[in-house]
């Protein structure tokens, strides 16, 4: 009932949160919360069925006794129906009651994470109530039918011995063990070798599925093979604590393995979720700095001198009205394009074509604009170019663009237009060319390709040369924001002008990344609770199973001290194996996770490593506390 109440409370709160008017009006946050509610439904089904399987196993003997004493299966089904109705009713009422009690606190916490002003006006959500009744009513109904089917298919003798089912020594399944090694190795290989952030999006899920399959296969078959190898080692096996631990784990390893694999997968999910979402939230300043190299930027798509003057005047006027000063201005003409890279050869493509392998950004700037921006005096021959890459070192002596080869006079280490970073789905190449006319020709060729491919909208949006103005405002934040908002309104009236600002985008970024952070912590907390309860159920169930076995051990000469030592050895090995494997999974997944974070504009690997390390340490300490409590309870039952 406690497990069910907890699951219902968590679902009701997240569903209610997604239906609050202020949140429902913002698509990003609402979608994130709806996905979280969907995950909670799937998780609750698995979690409550898992809990129910332990309870029905403990009750099989009791139900078998009722059957032998004269109760028919119809009467048992009726009895269990009334029990399910009472437990379901109390659990749903308790969960909704606690959810309503803590809803306001959860809402205030969510607003705090999003950097929003707090509001206490939260009405009771009737749609969330209906969702909760339907979802958990269905779950309790399904568990009831599952229990009835189990009892109906069993005879009284099987029910009497149901608590001891699954104790036959399993066979060593070498084929499954090898399959587990192969799938786990494949998952690890994908995680370690994926270099492209865009490819990491698809690879991560494939690698995760392979690792999950491999984990289950290795815990189920590989662990049995390993334990039997330990049993063959006579020096190790024929010691009181090793003998009981190894023999006990082999004796029921089939059912143990699934539980251990579940704990391992849940632990991995907790560590991945929390470390990634905390990193995103803690690295918000890094993310905004990478996404907006200039605090404010205006881009004129089809430029001319008159429009440029008008834009400059608007910036100057609105800054003066707000009492702030424009600083750090960076301006340049150029063409912002996409390209497909194959070594040192680049083929320009329409901006909407992201399906191509090796896609990258390419910004072409004439050398006189570069000199003006960087305060340099560089001259280039017709077949020469300067090159700057945002996410790597290019290293080659030449570059070919649409079949035209340029010799790299110098590879630049810095560029004011954009600092070095590894964030984003792809890198950007800045190519400094001798003449503006060459850039116009490349733009025109790309436009023609878009029309040829039937991409009229993409071709219409493309221009031969654009003009970019990057700048900052000096003054108090409120006045700067006021000036930028006024600029945004004026520039928004012209479809030919794009305007973006770091300050004005903070709200939307906090909405997205704050939602990720909240959901990561929320689901992480739920997974932690599930991990603890699964471990607890598992150890309590095994305590009852081991009780008679340890009595026999004491009768044949083992002291209580030796029994306790044997229990400690068994529980310790069973307990910390999933944690060790989970930490290994996270360590191997670290490279591909950094690529995923790069897609979300976080390139600070040091921050992510620190957040991951702290998450692992905190979780391991918590895990050790649970071990202490569980081992004590296990020993109390056995003793």
Structural commentary:
With 639 residues, the chain is of the alpha+beta class. The protein folds into three domains: 1-165, no CATH class; 168-294 and 502-557 and 570-622, no CATH class; 325-474, no CATH class. The protein has helices spanning 2-17, 21-24, 27-68, 73-113, 126-152, 156-160, 174-193, 197-232, 234-237, 240-251, 253-282, 284-291, 305-322, 367-374, 436-452, 456-461, 477-492, 502-555, 560-599, 605-638; strands spanning 296-300, 325-342, 345-349, 359-366, 384-389, 398-401, 404-411, 428-433, 466-474, 497-501. A seven-stranded mixed beta barrel has the order 2-3-6-7-5-8-4. The model has no long low-confidence stretch (mean pLDDT 83). Belongs to the ABC-4 integral membrane protein family.
Describe the global form. Answer: elongated
- Strand fraction equals 5-15%
Largest sheet: 7 strands, mixed, barrel
User: Structural class of the secondary elements?
Assistant: alpha+beta
Strand segment tally: 10
If you compute it from the alpha carbons, what radius of gyration comes out, rounded to the nearest whole angstrom?
32 Å
Work out the helix count. 20
Mean pLDDT: 83
Task: Give the termini separation.
Answer: 27 Å
Instruction: Indicate the low-confidence ranges by residue numbers.
Output: none
Run of helices and strands: HHHHHHHHHHHHEHEEEHEEEEHHEHEHHH
Total of domains: 3
Q: Order of strands across the biggest sheet?
A: 2-3-6-7-5-8-4
**Share of helical residues:** 55-70%
Keywords: Cell membrane, Membrane, Transmembrane, Transmembrane helix, Transport
Pfam families: FtsX (PF02687)
Membrane topology: Multi-pass membrane protein
Organism: Blautia stercoris
